[in-house]
Amino acid sequence: MKTLRDEVWNAALEELVARGKFKTADLLDKLDLSESQRQTVRRTLNALEEDGWLERESEQSGIWRLGWKGKMLLNVSEETIDQSRQ
Questions:
Q1: Is position 84 within any domain?
Q2: Which residues belong to any copy of the HTH deoR-type domain (predicted)?
Q3: Radius of gyration of the chain from its Cα atoms, rounded to whole angstroms
Q4: Per-residue pLDDT tens digits for 58-84
Q5: Cα dihedral angle (40, 43, 45, 51), rounded to 10 degrees?
Q6: pTM value?
């Protein structure tokens, strides 16, 4: 059985591979969660950032991009990575 944290991890990485970036709000809408579950999403995204899977320009930014570990280990094209910076 998948935990909410597993679902968030999976959804975030799927978005990164497909688009190179995503907004917190879009991920929250995609997962259709209660307010308390939304806090779990934010904590999970922060943990992914700490581990190098994600990065953002500032702590206030809601736009997440591939971190150093994601760039190294996920199968994401350079074109997708470049487009995510625009």
A1: no
A2: 13-56
A3: 12
A4: 888 889 999 999 888 887 777 877 777
A5: -130
A6: 0.84
d(CA 68, CA 4): 24
Distance CA 2, CA 63 (A): 25
- Compute how many other C-beta atoms are within 10 angstroms of the C-beta atom of residue 41: 20
Phi, psi torsion values for 21, nearest 5 degrees: -160, 165
Structural domain of 32: 4-78
Name the CA dihedral angle for 57, 59, 60, 62, rounded to a multiple of 10 degrees.
60
Q: Which uninterrupted H or E stretch holds 62?
A: none
Nearest to 10 by CA among 41, 36, 33, 34: 41
Read out DSSP for 3-15? -HHHHHHHHHHHH
- CATH at residue 21: 1.10.10.10
Total structural domains in the chain?
A: 1
